[in-house]
Design goal:
- By secondary structure, this protein is of the alpha/beta class.
- It has three domains: 186 residues, Beta-Lactamase (2-Layer Sandwich), CATH 3.30.450.40; 97 residues, PAS domain (Beta-Lactamase); 179 residues, Rossmann fold.
- 44% of the residues lie in helices and 18% in strands.
- The chain contains 27 helices and 21 strands.
- The strands form six sheets. A five-stranded antiparallel sheet has the order 3-2-7-6-5, sandwiched between helices. The chain has a five-stranded antiparallel sheet with strand order 9-8-12-11-10.
- A hairpin with a 2-residue loop joins strand 11 and strand 12.
- Helix 4 packs antiparallel against helix 8.
- It starts with a helix and ends with a helix.
Amino acid sequence: MSVSPHRETEFSSIIHQSWQRSKGYNIDPNRKYGKVSKELWKKSIVNNAELIHTALPLMNDIYQLVEGTGFMVIICDRNGRLLKTIGDEEILKKAESISFVEGADWSEEAIGTNAIGTCIKVNRPLQVFHYEHYLKVLQEWTCSASPIRGSDGNILGVLNVSGPYEKVHPHTLGMVVSTAKAVENLLNLQEKNRRNEVMKSYLEVTMNSLTSGIILVNQQGDIIQANKTLQDMIQLNEEDLVSKKIAEVFTNQLFQTDLFMFDNIKDRDITLKTKIKQNTKHVLLNCKPVYQGEMRIGSLLTFQEIQKVRQLVNHFTGNRATITFKDIIGESPLFLKSINEAKAASHSPSNVLLLGESGTGKDLFAQAIHNNSKRSAMPFIAINCGAIPRDLLSSELFGYVEGAFTGARKGGNSGKFELADGGTIFLDEIGEMSLDMQVLLLRVLQNREINRIGDHKVIPVDVRIIAATNKNLKEEVRKGNFREDLYFRLNVLPIQIPSLRERDEDILLLASHFVKQYNQKIPRVIESISPSYLNAIKKYDWPGNVRELQNVIERSLNRCTSGVLSIDSLPDEITVTGHQVETTVDPNVPGKKAEIQKQLLLDTLMDCQYNYSKAAKKLQISRSTLYRWLDRFNLK
């Protein structure tokens, strides 16, 4: 279509520029039809389902205003493709004659200047009147279009009202703009609602992933939300909690007043009590205010189970057992008997008393018993009753509250029994405990509860006791150094751990184990152990037991100058003692007396069914000495 310069000057700047672009598109102004693609239309319908669904009710509202006037209402996608048309049958039929139908491409690039396509091009509301259309066939129409924008400002689609140019009203464009704005607002609201739902889902997952119980309450004390951790903690479901007054759920006096709503509460130790099931849970409570701007709207309450807090502390502070029965080395019958007794004890909740000399591995047995029990996942707390001064042992075991004594830590301190709750407490060197402490310990064993120093509050504890001593507690009871009632409380499952001299067949096994262990730590490799070295350590009596043997092996590796452990690397006390013992054992007597000794040894072995431990005990000699006699008389 040719437009004279005079005609062009009458157009607005927007229309003029659009016509210039239309000429550049090489569009024939005499063309009769637009381009229609049903395939692209169907795809666009799917992609713009929310836009159509949101706009359609408002389009119907507009149509009710213009019904019977020859106008139609159209919604297009962001590219100008018609998605949905509403109008009288007559106007829709007229529109069909120029391909103004659903699926048609009404972009400026397709049909030149028009309200829909040019509105998209300039990104603003636009009314194209009569002869301002580029195609002649459209000049019988007047179209009013407004873009529908998303929250990011980008065009989502276009709302358009079209009809005969002679019936156009100056307020038509305003009506279209306000309706398009209403569609935008609805779409933005839906987007916000979706975001809120997404955030709600994230928040719900986050809250339910927390190890702390969470309750949100409003200013009136109504529970707004309670996470899954809290529900499991107090064994109540969401229906028992949400929309209920917090004072109706919990019986604690704290929740019966409004004080908690206004004060910050930090790490308050409380026993949480519920009304419905009368459950109790020992927790740390924290309370923080929730604000919207400067106005307080509620509170966030967090509940941490004391036991789980202690488990976490114990995990990071090393209060756990690392030894299992597989880690304990030994094959002698006497030692295996102790192992079997310990394994049996691990399946019982009863108290265990480990008996044996220093260095026999009582602490290893205690850890293995714990790790083989139902409490293996819970804390293992060890305390040496003989290593802590009497005046400090009480606070170590039972804890204290703030201000209990001079130097007491601010906020108080948990004792070993609290830290061991649910697990095992190992009381080593129990025979060194003072009588006044024995009274307190007895009370804990009887009542299964403690009082922190300086506090009357009773704290229940579920603790398995393993005690150990190198003393004869029966003798200590007789002397008045140990309470008989406490002895009977502890001595439920006594386990005697043999000394190394009673299990000297394990000496070589243990020595090899320690050599391998220290080979990894000390920067040299020991490939073998000389016979003289093995003979010397086998003949030594080991008063310090396994601990002494371990020390000697480490010392030997440090002194060794080759890949073979020789007798030269042993401490003098072992080589000298071994030589002296060997000389005393030599039956330096006439042949007849030696024969008598040999026969005595044979008879004793037969009586004891060749049980070397029993034979040594009957002859009142150590097993090391027994082995030397066997060597001397060639009886092995």
